[in-house]
Amino acid sequence: GSPESAAHPAVQIAGDPAGRRAILRSPARTRRRSAAMDQEAARTARESLDLAFHMSNILDTGLDRHTLSVLIALCDLGVNPEALAAVVRELHREPSAAAVPMPGPYE
């Protein structure tokens, strides 16, 4: 083998006519790479939420950061964004349940 194969165990990819090789990675190295990718994904998600929240404030939507993050997560799960917008509009129209006085037990 080549000096590369001595440093990194490798296997030939089955059925690969070009004879390319795949480097086998240790589980610890894979976990480190995965953790770094998770950190990068978290940073990107934070930056995206920051941008969406800034735009939301410019448009005066009245959405707080948490609500906006929930709406984005629902869209990521495949919920129709137009349906979500309709629900948000409807909720903004209705008086808050907390603002409606509840009768006490002795009234």
UniProtKB/TrEMBL annotation:
Pfam family, one: MOZART1
Keywords: Cytoplasm, Cytoskeleton
Chief place of localization: cytoplasm
Subcellular location: Cytoplasm, Cytoskeleton, Microtubule organizing center
InterPro entries: MZT1
Domain of life: Eukaryota
GO term, biological process aspect, one: gamma-tubulin complex localization
Disordered: annotated segments: 1-39
GO cellular component terms listed in the entry, alphabetical order: gamma-tubulin complex; gamma-tubulin ring complex; interphase microtubule organizing center; spindle
This protein's record includes keyword Cytoplasm: yes
Coiled coil spans: none
Family the UniProt entry places it in: Belongs to the MOZART1 family.
Protein name from the UniProt record: Mitotic-spindle organizing protein 1B
Organism expressing this protein natively: Eucalyptus grandis
